[in-house]
């Protein structure tokens, strides 16, 4: 029996390593997005500072480990076998859940997931135990769950959302009002003081307030005091010396090495936030396995008591995690931080929502976001009528948009003033939570601080606000979904193991492995698809010849995809193959998204082309419009076909099927000729192409006449005719826009190169 539970402990630590990997992939966004988004330094330097912060922060996480042992439930009410069931259910759920969110690039909270997993699994095991004793669950459950502590943790997590957003917005507003967007001037005079204050604040909250939970808190110094006591008694002196040291150092770096002050603040802030993250969140990844290992050692030391009878009251006492475990965990986190591609996907989401300029928005608009923007806009108008115009003009002048990087090809998403505020505010709030032994969600705090600073910085203007707010709602909705899923899945796993026997654990481990492998495959396919799209995506910095080349590739791929959708869609429709129609629909959706993405960027590219010729710009816009209309034609033809089959309406007659098959083959051959012409960029035979289009249109007219005859002979019904004519109308639209697309491409190339 001892060997069995030893295997389970090993499994717990194996799951912990996996959890560290998927957890850091998700949480890296918390301390990387500000430095990366503001391009404060090369990525290797950013990752180096973050890695050092993670390693140091790991040694400050000792005090937080008690949350996993006794923060959610009363361990003295459970036996060893039950505790191991709870812990295994938690770790299995955590690996699956976090990996799933990482795959789709959505930042979620490792703190919320671990808290609700502990709660769900503890409740499930407690219910089984109470029922087994024949007692009332409602009356007895409170004896097993540490409801007051759990409620305090959950309340703290929820409050942190509003506090982080509000403080982030307030501090950003004050900072921007002082420095404005033209901050380089004021930085010459007040930069060292700003940097000194920011770093001193970080020093106080992380090193002084955060010392309580560190591995070094009880180290004695020469005076006989512990390190924690010395810092407590000399707080004022430490802060004063810290402020003076940083002011002098920052100014010397500026004068001697020409290192910009804000770069120093951002890099120190990155170190601090990474440290705060590790100090607060390491418990989320290794707290449960460490508690499981401690439980196993206590049980072994008991001298052979049955695991179903050995009380876990020892978990309620003080705990101390060996520093080597903390450092090993820190190293795993650092390696993951550097290697993980999923971490980059999550980082992109937050930077996209907080960037200063408008552009391609990842999220669509929602009714709630539209109502909020409309309400705030109306309130602002009324407020401006009441306030003196001079006051309003003063504020407006301080927030007047300006960028020092406007003409750079790879401009930052936001400036270093905002990055500094993000890092300082978030690291301080997290450090406060750590000192109070409250496992705040670092994701919630850093994300909401970033959103608050974005709001105050007027990054959410009338052009982008609805999309950014919808994105925030989507992420927050994912957080609540995390809590619900974590509680339910962990509870279900614990319940099944409790009822089915301990060997059921290995079934769930196999499920976890399968899920991780499956999501990795999905992530790789999504990454490959995105890479293929990005390869031909026209960027703002592309030269004219590159734009010509990429636009031709886009057209060729669009024509090939259109032909494939038409052939597969028509074949599936005529054979009533619903699966084939769904595949055609998916391909059509991808085609439409690509066309829409190109259209959304058309005026940014057109603005660049205006430097060459107004005619060039005109033909480029026409080209994108015709490509979009071709995608519409395919969609409007395919959609009613799918509805017809889904509703089990009568299939088309043999004559109709023969006519449509022949017509689609002709259209497909025509599109291949168009593709060949665009690929070779030889447009001399365009008149022959027009003749080919006219010939197909004549076939369409002939088919329509045959359909009228079938209607007159009552061989088909009204629904059949509506769909048949709709298909022919959209095919004609497709042909028309295909010809116009080729002409626009020809004129675009001709006017650009001559």
Descriptive report:
This protein is mainly α and 754 residues long. The protein folds into two domains: 2-403 and 413-530, no CATH class; 540-753, Methane Monooxygenase Hydroxylase, Chain G, domain 1, CATH 1.20.58. It contains 26 helices and no strands. α2 (43-58) runs antiparallel to α12 (323-339) and α25 (686-712) packs antiparallel against α26. The chain is globular and about 100 Å long. The mean pLDDT is 81.
Strand-helix topology:
Layout: H1 2-38, H2 43-58, H3 66-71, H4 80-103, H5 110-132, H6 137-144, H7 147-179, H8 184-208, H9 227-233, H10 235-257, H11 261-301, H12 323-339, H13 341-354, H14 367-386, H15 389-398, H16 416-435, H17 442-456, H18 465-500, H19 504-535, H20 544-574, H21 578-600, H22 602-609, H23 614-646, H24 654-680, H25 686-712, H26 718-753
Helix pairs in contact: 1-2, 1-4, 1-11, 1-12, 1-13, 1-16, 1-17, 2-11, 2-12, 4-5, 4-11, 4-18, 4-19, 5-6, 5-18, 7-16, 7-17, 8-10, 8-11, 8-16, 11-16, 14-18, 16-17, 20-21, 20-23, 20-24, 21-23, 22-23, 23-26, 24-25, 24-26, 25-26
């Amino acid at each position: 029996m001892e060997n069995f539970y030893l295997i389970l402990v090993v499994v717990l630590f194996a799951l912990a390593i996996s959890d560290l990997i998927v957890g850091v992939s998700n949480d890296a966004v918390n301390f990387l997005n500000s430095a990366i988004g503001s391009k404060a330094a090369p990525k290797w330097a950013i990752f180096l500072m973050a890695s050092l912060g993670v390693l140091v922060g790991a040694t400050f996480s000792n005090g937080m480990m008690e949350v996993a042992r006794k923060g959610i439930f009363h361990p003295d009410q459970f036996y060893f076998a039950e505790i191991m069931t709870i812990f295994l259910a938690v770790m299995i759920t955590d690996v699956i859940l976090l990996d799933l969110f990482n795959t789709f690039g959505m930042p979620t909270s490792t703190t919320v997931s671990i808290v609700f997993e502990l709660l769900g699994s503890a409740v499930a095991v407690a219910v089984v135990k109470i029922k087994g004793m024949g007692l009332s669950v409602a009356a007895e459950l409170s004896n097993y769950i540490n409801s007051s502590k759990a409620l305090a943790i959950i309340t703290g997590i929820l409050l942190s959302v509003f506090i982080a957003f509000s403080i982030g917005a307030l501090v950003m507003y004050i900072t921007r009002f002082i420095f404005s967007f033209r901050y380089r001037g004021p930085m010459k005079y007040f930069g060292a003081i700003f940097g000194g204050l920011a770093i001193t604040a970080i020093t106080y909250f992380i090193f002084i307030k955060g010392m309580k939970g560190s591995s070094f808190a009880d180290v004695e110094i020469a005076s006989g005091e512990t390190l924690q006591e010395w810092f407590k008694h000399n707080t004022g002196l430490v802060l004063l010396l810290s402020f003076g040291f940083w002011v002098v150092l920052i100014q010397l770096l500026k004068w001697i090495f020409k290192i910009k002050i804000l770069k120093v603040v951002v890099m120190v802030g990155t170190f601090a936030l990474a440290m705060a993250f590790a100090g607060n969140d390491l418990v989320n990844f290794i707290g449960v396995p460490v508690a499981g290992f401690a439980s196993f050692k206590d049980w072994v030391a008991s001298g052979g008591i049955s695991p179903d009878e050995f009380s876990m009251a020892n978990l309620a006492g003080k705990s101390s995690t060996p520093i080597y475990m903390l450092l090993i965990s820190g190293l795993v986190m650092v390696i993951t931080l550097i290697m993980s591609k999923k971490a980059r996907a999550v980082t992109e989401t937050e930077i996209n929502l907080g960037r200063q300029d408008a552009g391609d928005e990842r999220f669509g608009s929602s009714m709630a976001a539209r109502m909020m923007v409309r309400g705030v806009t109306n309130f602002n108008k009324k407020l401006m009528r009441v306030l003196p115009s001079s006051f309003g003009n003063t504020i407006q002048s301080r927030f007047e948009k300006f960028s020092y990087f406007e003409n750079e090809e790879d401009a930052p998403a936001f400036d270093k003033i905002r990055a500094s505020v993000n890092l300082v505010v978030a690291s301080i709030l997290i450090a406060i939570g750590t000192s109070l032994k409250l496992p705040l969600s670092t994701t919630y705090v850093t994300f909401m601080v970033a959103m608050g600073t974005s709001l105050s910085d007027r990054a959410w203007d009338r052009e982008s606000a609805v999309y950014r707010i919808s994105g925030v709602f989507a992420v927050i909705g994912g957080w609540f979904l995390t809590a619900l899923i974590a509680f339910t899945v962990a509870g279900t796993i614990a319940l099944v193991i409790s009822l089915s026997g301990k060997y059921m654990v290995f079934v769930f481990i196999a499920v976890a492995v399968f899920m991780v492998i499956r999501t990795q495959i999905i992530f790789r396919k999504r990454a490959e698809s995105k890479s293929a799209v990005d390869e031909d995506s026209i960027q703002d910095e592309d030269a004219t010849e590159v734009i010509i080349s990429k636009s031709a590739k886009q057209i060729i791929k669009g024509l090939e995809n259109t032909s494939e959708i038409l052939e597969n869609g028509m074949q599936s429709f005529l054979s009533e193959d619903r699966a084939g129609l769904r595949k055609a629909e998916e391909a059509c959706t991808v085609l439409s998204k690509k066309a829409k993405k190109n259209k959304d960027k058309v005026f940014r590219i057109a603005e660049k082309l205006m430097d060459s010729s107004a005619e060039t710009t005109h033909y480029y816009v026409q080209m994108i419009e015709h490509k979009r209309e071709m995608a519409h034609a395919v969609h409007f033809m395919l959609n009613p076909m799918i509805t017809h089959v889904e509703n089990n309406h009568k299939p088309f007659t043999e004559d109709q099927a023969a006519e449509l098959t022949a017509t689609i083959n002709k259209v497909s051959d025509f599109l291949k000729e168009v593709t060949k012409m665009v690929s070779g960029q030889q447009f001399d035979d365009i008149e022959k192409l027009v003749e080919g289009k006219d010939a197909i249109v004549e076939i369409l007219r002939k088919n329509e006449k045959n359909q009228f005859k079938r209607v007159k002979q009552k061989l088909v019904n009204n629904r059949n005719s509506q769909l048949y004519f709709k298909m022919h109308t959209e095919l004609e639209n497709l042909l028309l826009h295909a010809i116009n697309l080729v002409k626009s491409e020809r004129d675009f190339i001709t006017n650009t190169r001559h």
